[in-house]
Structures are given as C-alpha cells and as structure tokens.
Design brief:
Protein name: MFS transporter
Shape: elongated
Strand content: under 5%
Structural class: mainly alpha
Keywords: Membrane, Transmembrane, Transmembrane helix, Transport
Subcellular location: Membrane
InterPro entries: MFS_trans_sf, PucC-rel
CATH architecture of the largest domain: Up-down Bundle
Organism: Acinetobacter ursingii
Order of helices and strands: HHHHHHHHHHH
Radius of gyration: 25 Å
Number of helices: 11
Largest sheet: none
Number of strands: 0
C-alpha cells in the first residue's frame, strides 16, 4: 500500500522494478529477524524475566547470531542496507542515550500507572487521566526547545532535559501508599517538559554529520533503540519492583514477628476499629492479623515503587552528566 501510494504521489520519480533486484534483501532479512528476536526476548522480561525459560535464552542467542551474520554481511558488501560508517559518528552515542531516555520515561508511562493500579485501585481505562499533563508538558517542551535550538548548545538542552526527568522521578520517590492521582500531576507535567526538550535536542545530534545514504540506517537504529529502551526497561523495572517488594515484605515481617512497639500499636488500632463489628475474640484476632498483613503488603509495594523511582533518578542523573561526549551542536 505504501509503495502504491508513493508511486501515485511522486510521479516525477516513479518506482522502478529493477531497484527491487538491487535491494539488499539478505541484509534486510538478517537484521530484521535478529532485531525482532531480541525485541521479543526483551518484551518477555515483564512476565518471565530473562533466562528463566529455556526458549527465551535460545531466542536471545539466535537473535545475536543473526545480528552477527548481518554485520558480517554489511562489512563485505558495499551496497548493504546498513551503513556501518554511521556508527563511527555521534549517532552511536545518540542510540545509547535514546535507550536510557526511553528507560527513564517509563517512570511516567509505566511505574506511576502501576503504582496507582496496585495501591489506589486504579483501572486501566483511567490511564488517560494520569498522562494528559505529560502530553501538555511535552508540547510546551518541544516548542521551548524549538525556540532555543538555534541559540543554545544542544548538549546543554539534553543535560537539562535529563535532569528535569531525573528530579521529577526523585520527587515521586517520596510517595506514600496514600498518594492519589492528583499527587502525581505536577511531576508528570514537569517530566513532559523534559521529554519535549530532549526529543528535539537529541534530533540535532542524531542527524549530526550524516549523509543521505545513511538515512535508512539512522531510521532503523533510532526506532529500534526506542523500542528496546521501552520493552527492556519494563522487564527490568518489573523484576526490580518485585524483588524489592519481597525484600521489604521480609523486613517488615521481621518487625511483626518481633512484636515491636509500632506493630503492637498498629494491631491495637485495627482491633479497636473492628471491635464494634466483631464480638468474638478469636474472629477479631483473625481479621486483625489479616488486615495487618494487607497493610504490610501495601507498605512493601509503596517502598518498592519508591526504589524504582530512585533507580530511574540515578540513571538519568548520571546520563545528564555524560552528554558532553557529543560534539558541539546548535
């Protein structure tokens, strides 16, 4: 459909069938299959985490082997689809920062919604209520970056954008189990500003010193870096949150077993609130301990999400100090 539409719109440059014969189909199939397998493996990280199932490891290995064959093919053929010369330019750094940026943006589009679903009874269809300030902030950020782009070094813009995202995540790390949607609206909006500024600033650096024949390589690499940052990041954060929740549950559980003063006070408060509804002491104890366990679970989840916000903060903050690997650009 795209080919037919292009042939209709660009009549002065019609599609020539002989160009299909000259196209690097071998390289295209190798790189597509390899990258597709790697993306599939990364996307499974949310459910299984990597290397927990044999077929995930096998797919990961197969993807890297196909990538290796593709790179060998591109080295040996001058008319290859992928132009490896592009990776000797700042484009390589731009791909790394794109992965980091997409990973960092997950604290808005994935961690906060998961926090609200787990702790506030949020529903999937309510996600738009969380993300609308992000869209507004992104639009304002893009407009601001567009105005400043011919006036300020783009490395400063990238560093500033990553810092905005980092400190927005740091602010969210102080959340409690009582936080609701309105508590996240301002950090989401501010993070949107950071995304808008970063998106335009990184575009300058991605396109730095590239030539037209390197365009397909640039597009493929940039898009796959974005996808890998998102799907791989979800797998990492999901596993990280689950492991931290187990750790916090165990630590809080130790306090319950030791019957410390805070635990006894909380248990007494629960019993007092239930005493009017339950007169049987045995039933009162059972329900009280059940509610105490639920409270522990909620607190452990809240602490694990705060740890995820802190992880994102540290990664983005470190990245903001590393943007000077790029050349000067306006």
């Amino acid at each position: 459909a795209y080919v037919i539409l292009a042939n209709f719109l660009f009549k002065e440059d019609p599609i020539r069938l002989e160009a299909f014969k000259l196209f690097d189909w071998v390289g295209y199939l190798l790189i597509s299959a390899g990258l597709s397998l790697i993306v599939m493996v990364l996307s499974e990280g949310e459910r299984h985490f990597w290397f927990e199932a044999w077929w995930i490891s096998a797919s990961f290995l197969a993807g890297f082997l196909l990538m290796g064959f593709a790179i060998m093919h591109f080295i040996r053929h001058d008319a290859a689809l992928f132009k490896l010369t592009l990776f000797y330019k700042p484009f390589s750094y731009a791909l790394i920062f794109q992965v980091i940026f997409r990973f960092g943006s997950l604290f808005i589009i994935w961690v906060i919604p998961q926090f609200l679903i787990q702790l506030s009874g949020f529903r999937i269809e309510q996600i738009a209520e969380v993300l609308w300030p992000f869209s507004v902030g992104t639009f304002i950020g893009v407009m601001t970056a567009y105005y400043l782009s011919p006036r300020i070094d783009q490395r400063i813009m990238m560093s500033l954008a990553l810092c905005i995202l980092a400190f927005s995540s740091l602010y969210c790390s102080f959340s409690t189990s009582q936080w609701a949607i309105h508590d996240f609206l301002w950090p989401i909006f501010v993070a949107g500003l950071g995304q808008g500024v970063f998106s335009l600033a990184t575009l300058h650096l991605v396109l730095y010193d590239i030539i037209p024949t390197e365009g397909p390589t640039c597009g493929i690499g940039f898009n796959y870096a974005r996808v890998m940052g998102l799907v791989g990041g979800i797998g990492i954060l999901n596993h990280f949150i689950n492991e931290r929740e187990k750790l916090h549950s165990a630590m809080i559980g130790e306090g319950v077993q030791l019957q410390n003063e805070q635990t006894l006070s909380m248990l007494e408060s629960i019993r007092h609130s239930l005493s009017t509804a339950l007169s049987d002491p045995s039933a009162l104890n059972t329900v009280s301990y059940a509610q105490l366990n639920q409270h522990i679970r909620i607190q452990a989840f809240a602490m694990s999400y705060n740890d995820a916000f802190l992880l994102v903060f540290f990664i983005l903050f470190i990245a903001s100090a590393c943007v000077w690997v790029f050349p000067y650009s306006k």
